Amino acid sequence: MSAANLPVLAWRQLRRDLKSGRLTVIGGAVLLAVAALSAVGFFVARVEQALARQGATLLAADRVIESPYPIADDHVVFATALGLRTARTVAFRSVVAHGERLELAEVKAVGAGYPLRGEVQTADRPYAPAMVSGGVPDPGTVWAEGRLLQALSIASADAITLGAQPLTVARVLAHEPDRGGEFFAIAPRLLMNLDDVPATGLLLPGSRATHRLLVAGDTASVEAFATGIAGRLGRHEKLLAAADARPELRVALERAGQYLGLAALTAVMLAGMAMVLAARQFAERHVDTAAILRCLGARQRLVAALFTIEMLMLGTVTSAIGCGAGYLAHMALIGLFAELPATTLPPPAIGTVLTAIGAGLIVLIGFATAPILALGRVPPLRVLRRDTGPRPPTVLAIGGLAIAAILVLAPWSSGDRRMTAYVLVCTFVTCLILAATATLVIRSLRSLRGAGGAAWRFGLAGLARRGKAGVAQITALGVALMVMLLAALTRTDLLTAWRASIPERAPNVFLINVAGGDTDRLRAFLRGRGAVAADLYPMVRGRLLAIAGRDLRPEDYADARARRLADREFNLSWAQDLQADNRIRAGRWWLAGASRPQFSVEAGIAGTLGMKLGDELRFRIGDATVAAPITSLREVDWSSFNANFFVLAVPGLLDEFQATWITSFHLPATGKPLLNELTREFPSVTVIDIEALMSHVRGVIDRVTAAVGRVFAFTLAASLLVIFAALQTTNDERRREAAMLKTLGAQRRTILAGMAVELVAAGLVSGLLAGAGAAATSWLLAGQIFRIAYHPNPWLWPVALAAGVVAMVIAGLAGLRGTVNTPPAIALRQTT
Amino acid sequence: MPERIERSTVTAENLGKTVASPEGPLTIIDDISFSIAAGEAVAIVGVSGSGKSTLLSLLAGLDLPSRGRVLLDGEDIGRHDEDGRARLRAAAVGFIFQNFQLLPGFTARENVMLPLELRGQGDAGAITDRVLARVGLRQRLRHYPNQLSGGEQQRVAIARAFAPSPRILFADEPTGNLDRHTGGLVADLLFDLRREAGTTLVLVTHDEILAGYCDRVLTLDNGRLRS
């Protein structure tokens, strides 16, 4: 036997099979699957890049190098050589003076070009409507935040002094894109021109400051920069991407990736489902060919290789076509997507094309190999005895290969192995439950055969007659429906829940530095003006000295964020009850009346600073020292925008210290004058307006919601076609039966009625179990992946049942349409 | 010990085949021994259900006996695994079936070329064209099986069987699906080619006329050889 001839034989076989229509279903399924995959892939990749670019506006750049020391010119040269734009900033804390008044300010000096992404907004006076300001403050002028003006009792055009340099307040700073995320640690912002910094004399070698080099440009250059700069960064330099910008945005982008990944994953699962059925049919149709080849002396491996090569050839060709179709589909999708104009989207990467083709082949191999390889085991005796054939591949073999393929694709299709595992486990368990239930139902239907006429009997007998094939079909349809339900309903449920996690009336104004004696008056003030504030929380500032007896030194941390956290004062608070947006991840929340000193720490910061449950934290507050162990770690939902604290103390522990209070409330856009009134009434209270930030995060969520909606709509449509293709695989047998019945004198109506009984029964079983599977998966995804509350959708069950029946009946009867109108002799000849 | 074993190409020694049935073990072939000399044409005849096709499948290595052994060219085929038996078939054995067993997606020419290509034979095309011309199908090279009559399909099958020049040819009711006239023409062709190539022929048939073409007739009755 010669293996050299295999590709030639396989190619010939492929041409013949294509011509005879034997590969229409499987080829169509691969094409469709890859089209769906690549359309989702192209679209997701481009939407993700666009989202990252929007995220970049919160970083004011695509990438940022951050360092406590001035950033080397080499990095600027490297970025410029790649065609990237750059801008420098340096942030430091200093006291701003106006006459006798002094106020601590967060100074940010910005160089020409700032911001590279996003925009700075300024106003004429505090809380007045803001407008976009091009450029940076002119030398000798500054843009100051409203509350700095408020604290210094000055207005625009007044003079201030920063270090040795007199400066003029030119505008009121309303919004800057790259404002730090930790609002309550910062003093009011003062934006100045970088050229004025030397004259202030404030920045000397060793001064505490954060130097940043902002970099932006086209995607490829930015990626090249990110890759190339990695080896050039100094020990204190860190490269930041959009996701590092702030926790709220990081959460939004991570969830965006998860939702879009789920869309891609469902496409892969559906594609695989069609592959299994189509490959099974392909193998059945080629048993005789395999037997003849074996009879002519072809070895088992050769026969298996022949069909595998044919499949791979088919897979490559159809994947390439599917990729093209996917590209066109994604263009149509982008065209529909008004919020992301095509001009702002980066072009699709060639990598996506190759990945889509590779993914098509992996899906084909994973899902179709088992039945194809079984062809190698066809006994040559079959040429004499048609009752002999290969043992069909076991469920374990098919399932094992399929799971392996999905896991191989997981990083690309969903980007999240844990989510892939959940969907996979749920799908697999649903498969087993569906298969077991389908078997039971088919058996139990036998007893009902006598209850109706010929059509009823024929229909129910049809289910039983198909045996394992029937079980496989119900299982496949059930799983496909489950994935579709997940795509259609879960998407709505999960996205609605996500949007709801930032309610329309989420707090957008924070009031800090509220004196203990002012709390009741402030409550009454807000209530009297229709603003409902959240609770007032006490706040005591303390410096963390040691963790578990180990002195805290910023330089011990490699991570810039950890160094910042270690270097700053913490806002400590206390609470009897756990806030609704907090969840205990480890340890226990204290009971009412607990007197033992203890702290509860936010899990993220605990991880960053290396704190563990049981570690003793030692803080210096004023002149005193407070030490207590960590008894719980909390997860905080930062997207709630409520006031939250990294470190909470048990009530009583911090009583002896002077506390200020903090609260937050929602202020409608029309209510801004209230802030002026409030600052007049409570001059010591600092007002922080975070409306601009919230609009940004809402904008991201809105874009993601729209993107996911379209991606899932496409997946849904593709799924319908894949299901249709999958259902075609059993139509050979139905056609043969219909032709036989016609030969025996059955009328068209009887045949159709009989088929309908069988299809409806199978559809109902599939739909019922698909609904159960989708509900269970949604519940798991909501709780374990997206961490949002799951509310069962009342439409799930009716939709599941109806979809099962409709899909089965339409696809089944469509496949038979030609047969019932064709003379039986012709139909029999075509199907045997 | 069967006679002429040193010159025989097909030898059956105490061959038996038993299969499981709802009524218990069912013996299809019962202790059969014979040998067929090189170049000999032997017909295996018997009524339906006598075990003819089972015996053919055992002799050709398409199935394994429950007892006894089969020697092809002196080699015990039971000592080979599936692939080993496939190798033996590819090297020395050809088949002709009642239902032709042509690959429906392949043209007449491609069907005949197939066993040559599986052997990696370089001049497969030339041999194919010559053999197809010999069976009178020069004008049908590019026809698919469903475009050929039954007689023509069987002639393609005969061409496919003879193209690789097998030493042994197994034929299962080669004229069973053809009318008497066409069957006669096909039989003439088959035996002419066999004679020209000196091929050993093992023919299963219930057609006494066809059996008459052979050098020797073995009659099977209920799984046993009737002397």
Plain-language structure description:
- The complex is a heterodimer of chains A (832) and B (227).
- By secondary structure, chain A is an alpha+beta fold.
- Chain A has 22 helices and 22 strands.
- Chain B is α/β, with parallel strands linked by helices and 227 residues long.
- Chain B has a single domain (8-226), classed as 3-Layer(aba) Sandwich (Rossmann fold), CATH 3.40.50.
- Chain B contains seven helices and ten strands.
- The radius of gyration of chain B is 17 Å and the shape is globular.
- At the A-B interface, helix 1, helix 8 and helix 9 of A face helix 1, helix 2 and helix 3 of B.
Quick summary of this structure?
Chain A is α+β, with helices and mostly antiparallel strands and 832 residues long. Chain A has 22 helices and 22 strands.
Which secondary structure elements does this structure contain, and how are they paired or packed?
The complex is a heterodimer of chains A (832) and B (227).
Chain A: H1 6-20, H2 24-57, E1 63-67, H3 73-81, E2 85-98, E3 101-110, E4 120-123, E5 131-133, E6 141-145, H4 146-152, E7 159-162, E8 165-175, E9 189-193, H5 197-200, E10 210-216, H6 219-230, E11 238-240, H7 247-285, H8 287-295, H9 300-336, H10 350-374, H11 395-413, H12 417-445, H13 454-500, E12 509-515, H14 519-528, E13 537-547, E14 550-551, H15 560-567, E15 569-574, E16 582-587, E17 599-602, H16 603-609, E18 616-621, E19 624-636, E20 647-649, E21 660-665, H17 673-681, E22 686-689, H18 691-728, H19 731-743, H20 748-785, H21 796-820, H22 824-831
Parallel strand pairs in A: 3-9, 6-8, 15-20, 17-19
Antiparallel strand pairs in A: 1-10, 1-11, 2-3, 2-7, 2-10, 4-5, 4-8, 6-9, 7-8, 12-21, 12-22, 13-14, 13-15, 13-18, 13-21, 16-19, 17-20, 18-19
Helix pairs in contact in A: 1-9, 2-7, 2-9, 2-10, 2-18, 7-10, 7-11, 7-13, 7-18, 9-10, 10-11, 11-12, 12-13, 12-20, 13-18, 13-20, 13-21, 18-21, 19-21, 19-22, 20-21
Chain B: E1 8-21, E2 24-37, E3 41-45, H1 52-59, E4 67-72, E5 75-76, H2 82-92, E6 93-96, H3 108-118, H4 124-134, H5 150-162, E7 168-172, H6 180-197, E8 200-204, H7 208-212, E9 216-221, E10 224-226
Parallel strand pairs in B: 3-8, 3-9, 6-7, 7-8
Antiparallel strand pairs in B: 1-2, 1-4, 4-5, 9-10
Helix pairs in contact in B: 3-4, 3-5, 4-5, 5-6
